[in-house]
Amino acid sequence: MPPELLAAIEAIESLPGIGKRSAMRIAFDLVKRGPLRVANFTAALKTLAEGVTTCSECGAFLSNTAGSACSFCTSPKRTHETLCVVENASDIYAVENTGEHNGLYHVLGGVLSPLDGIGPSELNIPKLFSRAKSLGTKEVIVATNPSVEGNATGHYIADALKPLGVRVTRIATGLALGQLLDYAETQAISQSLRQRVDL
Ligand SMILES: [Zn+2]
Description:
Elements: H1 3-13, H2 20-33, H3 35-51, E1 52-54, E2 61-63, H4 71-74, E3 82-86, H5 91-96, E4 104-107, H6 125-135, E5 139-142, H7 148-161, E6 167-170, H8 183-194, E7 197-198
Parallel strand pairs: 3-4, 3-5, 5-6
Antiparallel strand pairs: 1-2, 6-7
Helix pairs in contact: 1-2
The structure holds zinc ion (ZN).
Zinc ion binds next to α4.
């Protein structure tokens, strides 16, 4: 096999959910499409890598050309009274698909993991506390993944914000949001948001 094909297969195989056989199929298909049509594909990837940054307020994905704050943070239609806390920017879309949350978001960038040296300052937690205060947030909904660390992170946030009069809740069932984007899963997240419990 030509080294160009091998290199492409290796790159494609590094993507999540793609095994060797799928990577080979995609690489062969790209060769068959020819340079012009592959150019559109590579241009989109280049734009994605260079053109997407994160919101300076909440950490959501943001186009490089859209200023410093995202459309959630700047929307006059979204309430500042509820703030949904997620681990990763991609988790926002799982919550957003439900249509259940009309508040703002806050991306932590991970979860507390003392053994790995990840404390509150390594995450976007200090910013969460300052935002909750300045926005006048009444409820923080913790939607971190249902791991030991995800739960501990929720309790840490609750311990800090409850004395300030902010209600802190946790989505009801253990769902790892990042992978959940299809319809059935959206229904489950929807239910989980409605049945959230106080921390
Ligand atoms: Zn934002």
